[in-house]
Structures are given as C-alpha cells and as structure tokens.
Amino acid sequence: MAENTQEEPFPWHLGVFDAHCHPTDTMSSISTIPKMKARVLTVMATRGQDQQLVSSVAEDHYIKSPNPADWKPEERIIPCWGWHPWFSHQMYVADEDNSFQTQEKEGKNLQGEDKIRHYHAVLRSNRATLSDEDRRHFLSFPDPMPLSRYLAQTRTYLERYPLALVGEIGLDSASRIPVAPDADADADADAAVTPGGRDGRRLTPFRTHKAHQKKVFKLQLQLAAEMGRAVSIHGVQLQGTVFEVLRELYAGHERKFLSRRERKKRGIDEHGNDEPIVPVPQTSHPHAQPQPRPYPPRICLHSYSGTPADFNMYLNRAIPMEIFVSFSAAVHLGGKQPGFEDMVRFVPDDMVLVESDLHTAGPEMDDLLEVIVRRVCRVKGWGLEDGVRRLGRNWKRFVFGEEREGMGTGRSE
C-alpha cells in the first residue's frame, strides 16, 4: 500500500513505532508480529472480551526495558488496558445517586430490573418513554459490571507490566449502541474476530449519556495518574469535554512561570531559558514519582479528529502533562478527515506520533504505517530518515517519559 514504489526506500531499520493499534481483535494475526517491519506496537484493549487477550500477547512480546539496546527480538509490544467509550454503558458506577452500592460491594453484575434501570439511566434515544422494545434491547445487552471491579483488574495488569499504558479510553457522542450478538444472525460470524466488537452489527437508537461516559473516563484517568502511566485517548465530537475532564484533574498543578518583572529582579536574561519555576518531573521509570500527581503524566490524542482551533487549547505551556497527537492513514487519509495537512503543520514537531489503528497485525499494518509516515514527513518538510528518527524519539518519550533532547518545552510560542 506504499504510495509510490519509485519513492525513496523506507528506513524501517531506524525503528518505526505504532502508537495505537488493536491486533487482539484478530488473534490469528498475532503470530505475524515477530515478522513485522514495525519495531513496536502499542496494543490497546477496549472491552471485556480483549482485556485478557492483551495480557496473553504481552506474555510473549512485552518490552521489558525503556532502553532499546536491551530489547530482545521477540519483545515487540507495549500493552495498554482501557475501556473504550463505545462500551462504557456496560459498566455501572455505584454512588450516592443510585441504588447499586450493595451490588458493587458484592462485585455483582446487574440483572433483571436492575439491569433495565441501569441502561435506562445511562442510555438516551429519540424515544421519550421506555417501550417494551427498549426493555427487550436492554435485557439482551451484556449484564453491566461494576467499574470498580474492572479498575481493580486493570491495576493488577499495570502492576504486572511496569511499562504498560492505559488505553483506549475517552469520550464519543457520535456512536450508537449495536444490537446484541444473538439478535443479529450475521454478528461475530467470522470466528477469527474477537467477539464483542461493533463492526457488522445493526445499530439501536441508543447512545450513552455524556455524563456516564465522563465518569468512566475520569476514573480511568485517575488510575493512570496514580500509576504514573501515559494514556491513549479517543475523542469524537467532544473535544472540549475531553479537555475539560483533563483540566479538572490538573487544576491547581499548572506550571508556574516567572513574570517579566520577576525575571528582571532575579537578573535573568529576558531572552534566556523560559522553563517553569518548578518543572514537572520527567522520568524514564513510570513508578519513580514518590507522590503521584492527580493527572496522567502524558496523553496521546489518538487519530485526532479536531481542528487546529480545537487543539490550540492544549498548547498552553502551563499544562503540566505532556501532550501528543497521533495520525493514522485509516482515519486521516482518503478524505475521511478534512484538514489533515493543516493539523499536521499545526502540531509542534515533538508532539507528533503515527499509528495504524488497525485490527489486525502483519503486512497491512506495516503498509499503513509507511503511508502515514511518508505523508507526515512530506507535510512537515522532514527528510524521510530524519522524520522516522523524530517520530521514534517522540514515541519513546510518550511511552517511557524520556527527557527531550534540547527540544525546549514543546509548546508553541
């Protein structure tokens, strides 16, 4: 799928890193990972059916060191655990506003009328009242599980894999809930595809309320913050709300900069180094912060669908998190995402990542990565080898938290 066979040979030997992909959606493709040209895949979990699958792939292919010199040939993935907003309705959060605290304490899934009450509370449709058809849909959906149980399981995975990340998590106002598998004869017909996904299913009129998505999103971000892990974030038609949730977490922890008057008082050259008074720690080890901060250290806005105007809010140098944006051929090329080149130009060079966002490992994933790397390099005006090296450094900093190499704050002035 390379754009032009007459182009400069692609420098796979320099290391190409997929910042976001889903090969556990097609487990039969996992055996191709050691043969791939891409060096490392950042593998996302999204729902109940793939959490353990990501762990099973990590057992054989997990990268155990942030130092590439220590990587063994079979070490090819960074595992990530998260619950995607498309499936957030399958979780319940027990709090003072509902009656599910006893069920949560006992770790129970909701059934019967409790299940109907949960789905009626967290799902919205174009119907004003709950119909018999709605009740049938709700009873056919998965029995909702307590979010607290999922978070405990995810904590265990993150403790087992100290370099693992949190993802894919986020917010999405566009997606509708599909029918249950047994309600659609064609669903999950392909035995090679991990069940529970959305592809090929008929859609119900239901969407998950933004308030419920925010609860599930925020609690996962707080777990990432506690564990000191980077996060891969999905955001569709709710860019402002994604930022709002992040800002709620870092409020009161903004980077502080000296005023011009204070710089003059301290005898600092006006054009000198403009670093925060108390820089946010950057570490190559995810557990090195003795007192976890209430926000994740690094986030990636994966296959970002916003505009430069939307993204501009992330360029405030006071934000204590490191911000990255990843681009994919699957989302940004082929006319699916207008304004792609404008967005690539707008994002600072040291915030750019690439991804495949593909559901299967192997040659197709390599091809998609090559296409997006070539396009990003062309738009940025980077030579191909220079661009691959830049993207590799950015990925390592996103995943491992490495220091920039003389690249300043990374924020646009």
Automatic annotation (TrEMBL):
Taxonomy, superkingdom: Eukaryota
> Pfam families of this UniProt entry?
TatD_DNase (PF01026)
What Gene Ontology molecular-function terms does this entry list?
hydrolase activity, acting on ester bonds
User: What SUPFAM superfamilies is this protein classified in?
Assistant: Metallo-dependent hydrolases
Show the segment(s) annotated as Disordered. Answer: 184-204, 261-295
Question: What is this protein's name?
Answer: Metallo-dependent hydrolase
Q: Which organism is it from?
A: Massariosphaeria phaeospora
